Amino acid sequence: MGEQIHKRLSKEFVEGVLEAFNDHRIGEEKICEMLGVRRAQIYKLRKRWLRSVIGNKPFELYGRRESAFHRMPEEVEQWLHEEMTFIRQKAEVYRGRFNFAVLAEEAQKRFGYPFHRETLRLFVLRHGYYLWVA
Q1: Residue 63 has pLDDT above 80, yes or no
Q2: What sign for the dihedral angle of Cα 78, 82, 87, 88?
Q3: Tell me: the pLDDT tens digits for 82-113?
Q4: Where are the domains of the chain?
Q5: Distance from first CA to last CA of the chain, Å, rounded?
Q6: How far apart are CA 31 and CA 54, in angstroms?
Q7: What share of the chain is helix, strand, coil (3-state, %, to 5)?
Q8: Is the confidence at residue 24, as pLDDT, over 90?
Q9: Which of 6, 9, 102, 125 would be 62's cystine partner, CB 3.0–4.6 Å?
Q10: What distance in Å separates the CA atoms of residue 2 and residue 36, rounded to the nearest whole number?
Q11: pTM for the complete prediction?
Q12: Count of CB atoms within 10 A of residue 120's CB?
């Protein structure tokens, strides 16, 4: 598999090709060849490009934004900070490890919706409460 499109081609080139494709000056086969992507990817790029044109926003080849998967409400984050501080400083049974399944269950009881233990683990790692060692 080749490099990703944003690493291979300039944004200006891709915009020009998408504009020509949108104006029916070039066909699907030609644009697939020029950009080195498959047909489905062309339509995803075109959709993103059209949204940027219509919304008067800059077009970005790299479409990944910050993921909402691992983002939690402020109240949950505050609770996690308090729990981690308590466990690290005051808990008698703390042995340098966390039981993220138990933490996820407690968070679900407290806030009313499920939390995946991996999401909590990533939060704890990101904030330096836990150092993962293989």
Answers
A1: no
A2: positive
A3: 988 888 777 666 666 778 898 999 999 999 98
A4: 5-54, 74-126
A5: 30
A6: 22
A7: 60, 0, 40
A8: yes
A9: 6
A10: 9
A11: 0.48
A12: 23
